[in-house]
Amino acid sequence: KQEVTQIPAALSVPEGENLVLNCSFTDSAIYNLQWFRQDPGKGLTSLLLIQSSQREQTSGRLNASLDKSSGRSTLYIAASQPGDSATYLCAVSGSQGNLIFGKGTKLSVKP
Amino acid sequence: DGGITQSPKYLFRKEGQNVTLSCEQNLNHDAMYWYRQDPGQGLRLIYYSQIVNDFQKGDIAEGYSVSREKKESFPLTVTSAQKNPTAFYLCASSRPGAGYSYNEQFFGPGTRLTVL
User: In this complex, is the C-beta atom of A40 within 8 Å of any C-beta atom belonging to chain B?
Assistant: First the structure.
């Protein structure tokens, strides 16, 4: 059964720092991997989608990498801002398109 | 404005009541999903539907029911058989890609259900 783990569970950094969030999964037979952001009490906002054949995707200050063989993905956030404070969720896609989620990393960026 | 809407935003249920959560999308997506989110846990799949008039159980389907009569709509009913329904419910949709791949999944704003 696929399991997704995110480390660390919480992270606090000063504004301007570059940071890395980690995601690992136990079964490398995934179709894609998606990173989301969730603000308190809100739905999920899709940040990046990496197809299984890709190694990385970039959007603005965000860069996500995927190493399927080792079951790992990282989300790199450059020059962090207080507005980046949120919970970041990693999810991998099964054969039916459903997503299997990690428990998330709660990020706090201090001004 | 394309997107996914969920209603109501907050819902209160008394013991023994069935309640229905609405999910509507105008993205022309074939696949729709319902997830449940509890504090300290990841999202868990309740039901999903890849085409109209067809749906499958997810990991935690007991005590829930769904219908998919229209492409745009995928309502979720929380029945009295669900013993611990207090949670945040999220609806999502996606468009199947080439082969067995799936495209980006988009989420609605969620419904918070509380049992009184």
Answer: no
Contact (CB<8Å) A101/B106: no
Q: Do B56 and A104 touch (CB under 8 A)?
A: no
The residue among A51, B56, B31 whose CA lies nearest residue B47 is: B56
- β A105-110/A56-59 pair status: unpaired
Which residue type does B86 have? T
Strand stretches in A1-111, DSSP E? 4-7, 10-14, 19-25, 32-38, 44-51, 56-59, 62-67, 72-77, 86-93, 99-101, 105-110
Residue B50 with chain A: CB contacts under 8 Å: 96-97
Cβ B103–A45 below 8 Å, yes or no? no
Query: Nearest CA to B35 among B25, B44, B26?
Result: B44
> Is B50 within 8 Å of chain A by CB?
yes
- CA dihedral B102→A9→A39→B113, nearest 10 degrees, is 80
Contact state of B40 with A103 under an 8 Å Cβ cutoff:
yes
pLDDT in tens, chain B (116 residues): 669 999 999 999 888 899 999 999 999 999 999 999 998 888 999 999 988 999 999 999 999 999 999 999 999 999 988 889 999 999 999 987 655 556 789 999 999 999 88
The Cβ of residue B84 has, within 10 Å, a number of other Cβ atoms equal to 8
